[in-house]
Specification:
It contains 8 helices and 9 strands. The protein has 256 residues and is of the alpha+beta class. Strands 6-5-7 form a 3-stranded antiparallel β-sheet, with no helix packed on it. A two-stranded parallel ribbon has the order 1-2. Strands 3-4 form a two-stranded antiparallel sheet. 5% of the residues are buried.
Length: 256
């Protein structure tokens, strides 16, 4: 069973392999075989092993870190960082996780947000009156352009009807959208993101280019995303493609 678990872990070609009690419930001979496998694997990648067997740790580990109640009580080979390493780590932390974007991108997203909320209501109401507008254009052509004596009475009546109809449709649509917004607030959808180096939860509408989204089992995908790292990631795409089973997603150039 442990061999199968190790093989499955190596499929994605990880740089770090976590082995949690790899010899648990095994006899001495099998335990030694499993540890020899991990020893061979450790030649080209880092292996972190969690064990309660001090003899096993002493025999196969190059560094032993002892923990008690979540605190490090001993380290056989503590890491000593130089000032240059600290500066590099700080610079890397400052650059990573920041959700920065250009001014033009911010303006475009803001205008798009306004148009989807306000402009859509107006254009929907205007489209609903397109029939009356067509009649008004025909009357303008026949009663004004073609007539020897132009008559503006019908045109004015039609234009008034168009204005009243558009206003009523706009008001009705606006009230419907306000009610829908209140319902959305009751069932808010949020995503866990890393922004400015901090893990926070934000509504879907507040996500911006540059945010790093963290997905867990059962989460909704809030936006178009590029996979940075994934472990057994599968998405349900039945509504898009009709696929009945979840589709596995991997990072580009990731080995499978």
């Amino acid at each position: 069973m442990q061999r199968v678990a190790i093989a499955r872990a190596l499929v994605n070609d990880p740089d770090i392999l976590l082995a949690d009690e790899p010899t648990g419930a095994l006899d001495s001979k099998t335990s030694e075989q499993v540890m020899e496998i991990l020893k061979d694997i450790s030649k080209d990648r880092l292996i972190i092993m969690v064990t309660h067997n001090p003899e096993l740790a002493e025999k196969y580990s190059s560094r032993i870190v002892k923990l008690l109640d979540g605190k490090i009580i001993d380290d056989s080979n503590p890491y000593k960082s130089s000032e240059e390493d600290v500066k590099k780590a700080r610079n890397k932390k400052d650059k990573s996780g920041k959700a920065s974007m250009k001014f033009t991108t911010a303006v475009r997203l803001s205008l798009n947000n306004l148009m989807t909320k306000k402009g859509r209501t107006f254009f929907t109401s205007f489209a609903g009156s397109i029939g009356i507008i067509g009649i008004a254009l025909i009357l303008i052509y026949t009663d004004v352009y073609l007539a020897e004596v132009p008559s503006y009475a019908n045109i004015i009546v039609i234009l008034v009807l168009v204005a009243v109809s558009t206003f009523l449709d706009f008001f009705s649509e606006y009230r419907s959208n306000k009610a829908a917004e209140k319902l959305k607030q009751l069932v808010s959808t949020t995503a866990t993101v890393v922004r400015n180096g901090k893990k926070i939860k934000l509504p879907f509408k507040d996500l911006v280019p540059g945010d790093t989204v963290i997905l867990s089992a059962g989460d909704m995908i809030p936006a178009d995303l590029r996979i940075i790292e994934a472990v057994n990631l599968k998405s349900q795409e039945a509504s898009l493609t009709g696929e009945s089973v979840p589709v596995e997603k991997i990072r580009r150039n990731q080995k499978t």
